């Protein structure tokens, strides 16, 4: 069994699936990905995830001191 098949089986057991396409841009994961691209070098933390879930994570580069 190859690793991809093992992973797909494990995810299926957990009630999830491995996506073959990027997440929608307006989904929490899509917002996190857009934020990460706009802010290279930024370490994503729990606060970023909370903002992405709430829909308040900025998708443009943030100003850094």
Q: Number of DSSP strands?
A: 0
Given helix and strand content, the structural type is mainly alpha
Apparent shape: elongated
Major sheet characteristics? none
Cα(first) to Cα(last) distance is 50 Å
Return the average pLDDT rounded to an integer.
87
What percent of the residues sit in helical stretches (DSSP H or I)?
A: 40-55%
The total of helices stands at: 3
Q: How much β-strand is present in the residues?
A: under 5%
Radius of gyration: 15 Å
Order of helices and strands: HHH
Identify low-pLDDT runs. none
Topology (elements, then pairings):
Blueprint: H1 3-13, H2 28-38, H3 46-54
Helix pairs in contact: 2-3
Description:
The protein contains three helices and no strands. It is mainly α. Helix 2 crosses helix 3. The longest helix is centred in the N-terminal third of the chain and has 11 residues.
Write a concise keyword list for the protein shown above.
65 residues, 3 helices, elongated
Would you summarize the structure shown here?
By secondary structure, this protein is an all-alpha fold. The chain is built from three helices and no strands. The chain is 48% helix and 0% strand.
């Amino acid at each position: 069994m190859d690793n991809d098949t093992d992973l797909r089986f494990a995810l299926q057991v957990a009630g999830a699936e491995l996506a073959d396409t990027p997440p929608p841009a307006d989904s929490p994961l899509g917002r996190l990905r857009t934020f990460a691209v706009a802010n290279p070098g930024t370490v994503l933390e729990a606060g970023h995830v909370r903002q992405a879930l709430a829909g308040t994570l900025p998708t443009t580069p943030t100003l850094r001191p």
